[in-house]
């Protein structure tokens, strides 16, 4: 259940040719945005602010349909000045900001001095997963869960 079993959801988001990430908190009804460039992206974030509460209400069990649709608040995490000078590592920054937030670490740990190693580590982890025989076997046997499908869900 949203805001009971799942407290928050992390979202990497492409904004033009730039990657940012967000933490959607279902308990506090807020969205925290992480952008290594320190910029604001209201056009990209605004749809989440409006739609997420409506989606959460639509997927609630019938017992908790009293959920009130209210827009989420948005805040932008403070970032060090002139981060990501090369501007080609914004995707790595977006993933590392999610990791730092999730683990409660300070964002200053991810900086231009260590982002190259972070990029290489992410690439290696993906490569390692791609050749993992156990993971390949599990993925080959995966069947999606049976879902209850219905016609359109009306969002108020």
UniProtKB/TrEMBL annotation:
* UniProt GO BP: proteolysis
Listed A to Z, the keywords are: Hydrolase, Protease
InterPro entries attached to this UniProt entry: Papain-like_cys_pep_sf, Peptidase_C48_C
Cite the Ubiquitin-like protease family profile domain residue spans from the record.
Answer: 1-101
Q: Which GO terms describe its molecular function?
A: cysteine-type peptidase activity
Q: Which domain of life is it from?
A: Eukaryota
User: What is the protein named?
Assistant: Ubiquitin-like protease family profile domain-containing protein
* Biological classification of the source: Eukaryota, Viridiplantae, Streptophyta, Embryophyta, Tracheophyta
């Amino acid at each position: 259940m949203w805001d009971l079993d799942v407290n928050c959801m992390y979202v990497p988001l492409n904004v033009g040719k730039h990657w940012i990430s967000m933490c959607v908190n279902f308990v506090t009804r807020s969205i925290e945005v992480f952008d290594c460039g320190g910029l604001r992206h209201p056009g990209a974030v605004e749809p989440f602010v409006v739609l997420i509460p409506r989606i959460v209400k639509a997927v609630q069990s019938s017992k908790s349909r009293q959920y009130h649709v209210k827009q989420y608040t948005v805040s932008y995490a403070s970032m060090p000045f002139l981060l990501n000078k090369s501007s080609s590592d914004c995707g790595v920054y977006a993933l590392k900001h999610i990791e730092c937030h999730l683990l409660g670490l300070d964002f200053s740990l991810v900086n231009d001095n260590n982002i190259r190693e972070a990029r290489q580590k992410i690439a290696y982890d993906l490569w390692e997963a791609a050749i993992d025989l156990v993971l390949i076997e599990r993925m080959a046997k995966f069947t999606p869960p049976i879902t209850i499908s219905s016609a359109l869900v009306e969002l108020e």
